[in-house]
Design brief:
The protein has about 375 residues and is α+β, with helices and mostly antiparallel strands. The protein is built from nine helices and 17 strands. It binds guanosine-5'-diphosphate and magnesium ion (MG). The site of guanosine-5'-diphosphate has 16 residues, from helix 7.
Length: about 375
């Protein structure tokens, strides 16, 4: 009788893995191609794919920064402008783009964190503020101020406008923020309280020296408010899926919380887009935070691949994106948690996050390729 051996392929390029010839396709070191790794169905990559992917997520993801925006921010920097930085509280880790941060970090930055209404009432504003503050400090920004706001409450906008006008100390104001972070909503509310005391008109026109259209609002005869184009959501799930999928994953009302209890080798699959799996450690209660329409389902870890394959055609667990059809369209990362008995979050940018007590578990996350993952100590978790 012939012996049958399972052929193991690279999860990325599909090459058959071998550890005989480093110069040939699919090479992987012998220790990685061990019986144990194969038995445990560890995801394996050939050496050259692994090298090519190393920087993804652990280093810097492939973020596009519009040169024109950087050019505009050169002016902001040179003129000591006041920056209004708008973030969407549900998802803003993808907003931090190093070239942009480098231009603005020495300027006074007022952070407006929008969509407060997506969070339950019991979450205190101070909690959200300290979360935002930590994230900005991580990238080297000490915000001048942080305001937590919601379009559902009209009261705050007059005060915000007045404060910005005082704090700018006569300098221009530049508003930046991701696409769909809520800039237009804020501007519309503030404009109700704005009075044009100049002879200049409010207009959308090319920013001097660029081909980029910018909203310009005169503040007095020598200074302006500029609204920059929205920053691309290039490392967010939102930026990688079709419009109808975006509509499902962007929350419109209070975030849905799904509870699950994962034993070792169980997974919570999130539509056809992601999965959180407990691959090592004791059984763990998790909570998954997402938009209302995002469906999730618990299953055995070793059924996930097959399920995603079938679900791509059947669409029984939504949302499913046409852009994420096969293995190679996803990334897999593994977090080995501390054993600090504190609540931690692991967020998939634009899609949601899980919260759980860290007890040294290994959590594996499958997510759309090129999207950011962020692990933090939880502020609102329990
Ligand atoms: N729930 C909620 N939705 C908001 C809030 N602010 C903006 N939005 C929604 O977020 C989406 C993007 O807002 P918009 O102001 O156009 O963002 P912009 O792309 O930065 O100009 C729209 O669907 C808004 O209705 C808010 O405070 N709460
Ligand atoms: Mg807008």
């Amino acid at each position: 009788m012939a012996k049958v051996k399972r052929v193991i392929r690279c999860f990325q390029c599909g090459a058959i893995l071998q550890s005989d010839d480093e110069k040939k396709k699919g090479f992987i070191t012998e220790d990685l191609l061990s019986e144990k790794n194969i038995k445990e169905q560890r995801v394996l990559y050939c050496q050259s794919c692994y090298e090519a992917m190393k920087d993804i997520n652990t280093g810097e993801l492939n973020q596009n920064v519009d040169d024109q925006i950087l050019k505009i921010l050169d002016d902001a920097k040179a003129s000591d402008a006041f920056i209004v930085y708008v973030i969407d509280l549900f998802s803003f880790n993808g907003t931090f783009k190093k070239p942009i941060i480098d231009k603005i970090k020495k300027l006074p930055i007022a952070v407006l964190a929008t969509k407060r209404d997506l969070f339950p009432k019991y979450v205190k504003d101070e909690t959200l503020i300290s979360f935002v503050k930590e994230r900005f400090e991580e990238v080297g920004i000490k915000p001048f101020s942080i305001n937590i706001i919601s379009a559902k409450e009209d009261g705050t906008y007059k005060e915000l406008l007045e404060r910005a006008l005082v704090n700018r100390k006569g300098h221009d104001i530049y508003m930046i923020g991701d696409l769909t972070s809520g800039k237009t909503t804020i501007l519309n509310r503030c404009m109700k309280h704005y009075e044009n005391k100049t002879r200049k008109a409010i207009r959308v026109s090319e920013y001097p020296g660029t081909q980029t259209k910018v909203l310009q609002i005169p503040l007095n005869n020598s200074s302006f408010f500029f609204e920059l184009p929205g920053l691309a959501l290039d490392i967010s799930v939102v930026g990688k899926v079709e419009r109808d999928v975006q509509k499902i994953i962007i929350p419109k009302k209070e975030i849905k919380i799904t509870s699950a209890y994962l034993r070792t080798d169980e997974s919570l699959v999130i539509g056809g887009l992601a999965a959180y799996s407990l691959t090592k450690g004791e059984a763990t209660s998790i909570k998954f935070y997402s938009a209302e329409g995002v469906e999730s389902k618990k299953m055995a870890y070793d059924k996930v691949d097959q399920f995603l394959n079938i679900n791509y055609n059947r669409r029984s667990l939504r949302p499913v994106s046409d852009n994420f059809a096969k293995f190679a369209d996803f990334d897999i990362f593994e977090y080995t948690m501390e054993n600090d008995n504190k609540y931690h979050d692991i967020a998939i940018e634009g899609l949601g996050w899980i919260t759980f007590l860290a007890k040294g578990q290994t959590i594996q996350i499958l997510l759309p390729k090129g999207c950011a993952l962020k692990e933090t100590i939880s502020k609102i978790g329990k």
